[in-house]
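Can anyone check this?
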Amino acid sequence: MTGTRRRPSQATPGHRESAADGRSTRWDGHKARRRAEMLDAALAVIEENGTEISVQQIADRLHVPRPVVYRHFDGRADLDDAIRRHIVESLMAELLPRLHPDGTVRELVRGAVGTYVGWVERHPHLHRFLAAADPHGDSATVLAGARDRIGGQLADLFADTLQRFGIDRNRARPMAFGTVGFVDGVVNSWRAAPTLTSEQVEGILTESVLALLEGNARSLDVPLTRDTVVSELMARAQLSPRSPAGVATVVADL
């Protein structure tokens, strides 16, 4: 009895490309996860041993040969830049959620300042590793980007408040970035010569930032004090004669 021989199926070019794309996507995901594991290991090594670490220490923590680590980075400078980006992301994950208009002005400032000072105190080696970045290298761009994100979010919060009172929102940016620069400078000085406790530094910064906000608010005739509830300030702003809504109400009553 004879049978017909079945011809092996052949994938079409489209199917082959789809399969290749799927393998590439899975491989890219694997590389990204592996790279993240190496950066997590690097942060752990810095936390335990200080800023002067070797690639071998990272490899030992992951139980892999040293060349495996370099396979994911273009040399030591690229590795150090990636570590700093990873540190910044861990800080941003804690700090940015605190820059929201919840509670009183005092609570907002104390929460943001306390979060930053607390992070620096808990992770002194990570903070020093950030501070040791080459001012002309890629890491400096990473740090500048972090300040821009913090300052930008704070500027948006200030600008929205000013605009509701009918005040030029462009005034917000210098206030926001000046505040960020002041806090960063004080914290860097404290870590270089830690003669005060973190609670003392947090208190000094909180009072100083509140005084800065209250002083600017007075000069702009904005009814803000440290005990003002931010949501109530926003509601009052809608009724201000200088706000667009307030102007419309005044015109309607004429």
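Reply from J.R.: I decoded it. The chain is about 75% helix and 0% strand.
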